Amino acid sequence: MKLLIVIQHRLALWNAPAWFGEKLGQEFPGLEIVQRSNYDGIEAELRDTEVIFTISLRPTQFTAASQLRWIHAPTAAVHQFMFPELIQSQVVLTNSTEVHGPVVAEHVMALIFALAKKIPQAALLQREKVWGQESMWNEGQHLREIAGATLGLIGVGSIGRRVAQMASGLGMKVIAVREHVQKGTPQGVQAVYSAAELDRLLAQSDFVVLAAPLLATTQRLMNAERFAQMKPDAFLINVGRGPQVDEAALAEAIRKRQIAGAALDVFDQEPLPADSPLWDLDTLLITPHTAGLTEKLWQRHYDLFSENVRRYMAHQPLQSVVNKHAGY
Q1: Is the peptide bond before 271 cis (omega within 30 degrees of 0)?
Q2: Residue 5 bridge partners (DSSP)
Q3: CATH code, 117
Q4: Are residues 128 and 17 in the same domain?
Q5: In this structure, are 168 and 235 located in the same domain?
Q6: d(CA 112, CA 61)
Q7: Count of structural domains, the chain
Q8: Mean per-residue pLDDT pooled into runs of 10, the chain (328 residues)
Q9: pLDDT tens digit string along 201-232?
């Protein structure tokens, strides 16, 4: 059985380390493992590949992989695989949402504290050697407490569930929107609304956290109409996908003080262009898609993937299987 590991990314952390394939080879001596750092001439490798570990695959490459049975994505998002040929095939797709969920949830909580306590503004004042106690209190939204605030979650997958547990542990009231309300109320969540009731969540929330998969129904989900439903002292946090937020509408809502501010870790275009108006918004905190970064990343990938390899070779059900027709 041939396993192809191929990732090519500008950030070194996202590229599979050499030990990853080597350790798999030691644990599963029956595997033929090919590990590549680029896609040059990859079609030749794909012809007899049964399992592929990769961030993305083009339709033409998928067609070339006639022996392919399983794709594993070291990402939580899988919209890049949602083309008809793959969706309609019998090829199993798994993802790494459980790998990224815990660390992204920590990042969400850090952003909540930073926004509530005006940490970015304090850092700017420190750089200018200004004792800004009065300006910190008087300008814009007051510093606020986390306990007692309402957190509105859009999406209760691996990230959302952990955010709910952390936030409720800090005394926040957590409410959520989920596509399938019948799945119940996750731990830490006090009330669940349907997607059609999103405006009800927005009207109550002090912090709105977007952690939903990128689907046709979530494209530009947060737009001018949605920002108009939010409280004027509320903040938006996006750790989902950039296209889920209308960035121009967000900038306008912040300038007009329709909302207090935002924190974004994902963007329509990455890296964020230097001429983006988002850079100049005082109450917008930008992190450069770092929510999922951790020194434990590849060990977590190995733990998940090696368990699934074991299951695959034993003809047992895999973990983290994606519903290709649903898109997540």
Answers
A1: yes
A2: 35, 53
A3: 3.40.50.720
A4: no
A5: yes
A6: 41
A7: 2
A8: 97 97 97 96 95 96 97 96 97 96 97 98 97 96 96 96 98 95 94 97 98 95 98 98 98 97 98 97 97 97 98 98 95
A9: 999 999 999 999 999 999 999 999 999 999 99
**Closest of 83, 77, 72 to residue 325, by C-alpha:** 83
SS (H, E, C) the chain: CEEEEECCCCCHHHCCCHHHHHHHHHHCCCCEEEEECCCCCHHHHHCCCCEEEECCCCHHHHHHCCCCCEEECCCCCCHHHCCHHHHCCCCEEECCHHHHHHHHHHHHHHHHHHHHHCHHHHHHHHHCCCCCHHHHHHCCCCCCCCCCCEEEEECCCHHHHHHHHHHHHCCCEEEEECCCHHHCCCCCCCEEECHHHHHHHHHHCCEEEECCCCCHHHCCCECHHHHHHCCCCCEEEECCCHHHECHHHHHHHHHCCCCCEEEECCCCCCCCCCCCHHHHCCCEEECCCCCCCCCCHHHHHHHHHHHHHHHHHCCCCCCCECCCCCCC
**pLDDT per residue over 128-160, tens digit each?**
999 999 999 999 999 999 999 999 999 999 999
Q: Tokens representing 228?
A: 């108009």
φ and ψ at residue 262, rounded to 5 degrees: -160, 165
The residue with tokens 């990853």 is 20
The CB-side HSE value for 187 (13 A sphere, CA atoms) comes to 8
With respect to residue 319, please indicate whether it lies within any of the assigned structural domains. no
Catalogue the active-site residues. Answer: 241, 270, 289
pTM surpassing 0.90? yes
Distance (Å, rounded) from C-alpha 213 to C-alpha 219? 10
